[in-house]
Amino acid sequence: MLTVQISHTQGQFDLNIAFQAPSGGVTSLYGPSGAGKTSIVQMVAGLLRPDEGYIAINDRCLYDSQKGINLPPEKRRIGYVFQEGRLFPHLSVRANLTYGMHRTPARHRFIDFDEVVALLGIDHLLARRPAGLSGGEKQRVAIGRALLTSPTMLLMDEPLASLDGARKAEVIPFIKDLGEHFSMPILYVSHEPGEILALATHVVVLKRGEVVDSGTPETFFDPYPPAYGDRQAAGF
Known about the structure:
Layout: E1 2-10, E2 13-21, E3 26-30, H1 37-45, E4 52-57, E5 60-64, E6 69-70, H2 73-76, E7 78-81, H3 93-101, H4 113-120, H5 135-147, E8 153-157, H6 165-182, E9 186-190, H7 193-199, E10 202-207, E11 210-215, H8 217-220
Parallel strand pairs: 3-9, 3-10, 7-8, 8-9
Antiparallel strand pairs: 1-2, 1-4, 4-5, 5-6, 10-11
Helix pairs in contact: 3-5, 5-6
């Protein structure tokens, strides 16, 4: 389980957040632009330091302002998938996948290369370079690279935002299987109710730097939205 209780001030924006995410499945952070979603993900990853608070994964403390604990990103064992795949263009798919894995100490590795390749359906891509991949294929490889670091959780910051509807439909089933298959929490940022309905088991709704509600996706969204959602849903 991910536990987040943090506060942070940046300029005139105040972030005061408290929520828990289940150990398995996908928890979505949902809200309008400027609600604080990416800031939360960056604080969990260790890329941005809160002013005060507490962050833990399965009782392993990552940040505690009162105790002076602030683990650096490389020691948090968190996988991060960005909007763009950010693959190394000069490396093959296989080399991209194993890049982070080789930097993870053997004692911490619990995710198998062949298992990830099979789950994401990318065996036929291993010899290619990123320039020869579709957008959906690049994102699957980026997800695989993050998984092969054997993280204790996965952060996904609008990973489908740059894809069209067909490519989103291609990638969504793979993301949906990850949390349960590897029994790790996934924190997923999205503006799109359609994505959240397809993927999430839990939703944390944000407005102006605060949690205003949480629950199952069906609590907030029409179960039959237009393709990938109407941003006016849930009051946005």
